[in-house]
Amino acid sequence: MREMTKGANVGLADLSDDTGAVIASLSWSSTAGDGDADVSVLLLDGNGKVRSDADFFYYNNTTAADGSVQLLGKTPTDSGSEDRISLDLTAVPADVERLVVAASRYGGSRFGELDDLRMTVADRTGEVLLGFSIADAGVESAFLFGELYRRGTEWKYRAIGQGYETGLAGLATDFGIDVDDEGENEGESGNVAGETDGTAEPLGAQTPPRTGEAEQPSTAEQSVSVPRQPVREAEATGPATAPPKRTRGPRTAKKKVTLPALVKKSLAENDAWKSARLFPAPTLKSDREREVRATSVLLSVMAQVPEFGRRLTAAFGAPAGRMQTFTEVSLPHGDTPKRPDGVIRVERAGKLWTALVETKTNGNALRSDQVQNYMDIAARRGYEAVITLSNDVALEGSPLVAVKTDGRRKHKVALWHLSWAEVAHQAHMLIRHEGVGNAAHAWLLQELLHYLQHENSGCHGFQNMGPSWVPVRNGIDTETLSEGDPRAVEVVESWERLIRQVCLRLGGELGQKALPVQRAQRGTTPQSRRAALADRLCEEGRLTAELRVDGSPGIITIVADLRTGKLRTSVEIPVPEGAYPLTSAKRLMRQLAEAPADLHVETLLEGHSGPRGTLERLRPEPGDMLPTDGSRITGFRLSLFKGMGASRGNAESGFIRSVDDAVDRFHAHVIAYLPQAERRTARRSQETAQEAGSVPAASSDTLVPA
């Protein structure tokens, strides 16, 4: 890997033989666990400007129609999470000379509050080619991490590391984006419509060309109107002190189709009538039947719904092109032909990208010998990837299957993994929140989801805590489990897989980013971190996880106490500095008027805990939440308790089901009633644009209620 310094550049061809498609990743960490930012990509012409506002890709405009850019969203890493971006350089239009990769914070947050700011670029096999770390971040609320630019027929990378105090608006305006400045401003030194406080001054070297006034949008939304026409040249070069009034451009994005969250009233005479399904599952009996049916159903929908197929394969280095899928293909291998469960082929500009697919359902484990055979076949035939698909969830530093690669082969084959939970998450996001091209595609994805969620499909995601679960639970109960026991490490790994699946499911239902929070020191390996957590499990008898969900007022904590058999789900609500204590307590009681009576409320004081009680007891007398010694209240902790399932599986009485139910209940009956943090969702941005008159109200982006 080439480590870059600020301002340095390198040709991608010097680092890899195959850089037609790359994955750019932006990452950061936070000791508080709640640091976050939004990535964005800008396509620039020879003048250093976007051709139109449609060349700006961010959280509410994630995919280029030609497949050149696709924001893949956040992926958990061992020290936090990273945003990944698929860049198909072969599909970039000829009049685009630069792809700038940036990120922005919101709500008054600054990049100096984050640690380990870093950008990496990997080739289609996932091999990291270069890395660039930013160590001098301070008050900036937006950063240019780096850019890919043309030099003749070659693509090169330049490390930028330039920041803006003016956030996303200042960054976007510099590159010719027409910025809407509607709504109230929260937490940043921006302007409301028609006001100005000077130019958007970037910090650091390599300042890009100015485009005039940097109007600041509401930081709660960072609402940049996409799509619109680019700023006229007269506007781009006019005086910063008196910018001309911008006119609204035409809407150029295609309308997307989503399905309503509420099911239409059934016309059946009674509940015994079952709706006809495109992919029936009740007759499936054997594991072989489940694997064949699940592979065929998934691959056929991927080929017929371009948005879905591209969503699942872009992260694997596949180009944007015509996709065809096949099942039960016989391929020669030694004396006995091998039959992978599926084959995916994508054609673009006369070139083929091919991946072999190996599928497992119903909790069956992947076999290393099978995957090794497919890796060998792919390498010999010049295929690009092998994709494994199972109920299991991959973790960093813990491979699902061990394979060997022949270093003498010039052609590299990438090994990728998908869980059924990830497949369902992407389908849910498209049909409920982001939209697809037409109603038929939405219906196909709905049928796919129904099939995946059917009890006979075997595609329910992670569903077994593993063989070490029972002996570890018994060892904690009898106090015979010692630190260093490898079985405790296996339970910690299973717990992490379960939490990642909970995040995928919850994020898909809400249309929000939901990620596990990792609090790891720099340089800590996944193995050492899990070993330390396993030792804590042996000592304390508890498994702990934290979730960060967009819109939630705080980090959600889940504690599974194996000694007491209880699950505790909680969130801490801070109290503003200087707030009157009794007023804060009464306000909380009003917000929780519809919350469960058994909700546990604990007052947090400086350095220790204060009064506590159930909501049922505290509602009549909010003053009982105040400390008698006059200590300053810093916040409140809200908790729900639930009995923990004992068995290792996904049965009704199992541990996995009890964790799912606990998180669902807490979010629906507690988090939903609290004031929401800044929501940067498609729906909220859509509503802001509708109020400003720039987007028709007929758009169907929706947010499913908690």
What is the radius of gyration? 26 Å
Helical fraction equals: 10-25%
Number of E-state strands: 25
Quote the beta fraction: 15-25%
First-residue to last-residue Cα separation: 44 Å
Shape: globular
The count of helical stretches stands at 14
Q: Specify the biggest β-sheet.
A: 7 strands, antiparallel
Detail the poorly predicted runs: 181-253, 678-706
- Provide the residue-averaged pLDDT: 82
Structural class: alpha+beta
Walkthrough of the structure:
It is a single chain. The chain is an alpha+beta fold and 706 residues long. The strands form 4 sheets. Strands 2, 4, 5, 8, 11, 12 and 13 form a 7-stranded antiparallel sheet that branches. A 7-stranded antiparallel sheet has the order 19-20-21-22-25-23-24. Strands 1-10-9-3-7-6 form a 6-stranded mixed sheet, with no helix packed on it. The longest helix is centred in the last third of the chain and has 25 residues, at 486-510. Strand 11 (142-151) and strand 12 form a beta hairpin. It has 14 helices and 25 strands. Helices cover 25% and strands 24% of the residues.
Would you spell out the secondary-structure blueprint of this structure?
Layout: E1 2-4, E2 9-11, E3 21-29, E4 38-44, E5 56-57, E6 69-77, E7 80-88, E8 98-104, E9 115-122, E10 128-134, E11 142-151, E12 154-164, H1 167-174, E13 202-203, H2 233-237, H3 287-304, H4 306-313, E14 322-327, E15 342-348, E16 351-359, H5 368-381, E17 385-390, E18 414-419, H6 420-434, H7 439-453, H8 469-477, H9 486-510, E19 514-516, H10 526-540, E20 542-549, E21 556-561, E22 566-574, H11 581-591, E23 600-605, E24 608-614, H12 615-618, E25 633-643, H13 655-669, H14 682-692
Parallel strand pairs: 1-10, 16-17, 17-18
Antiparallel strand pairs: 2-12, 3-7, 3-9, 4-5, 4-8, 6-7, 8-11, 9-10, 11-12, 12-13, 14-15, 15-16, 19-20, 20-21, 21-22, 22-25, 23-24, 23-25
Helix pairs in contact: 3-4, 3-7, 4-6, 6-7, 6-9, 9-10
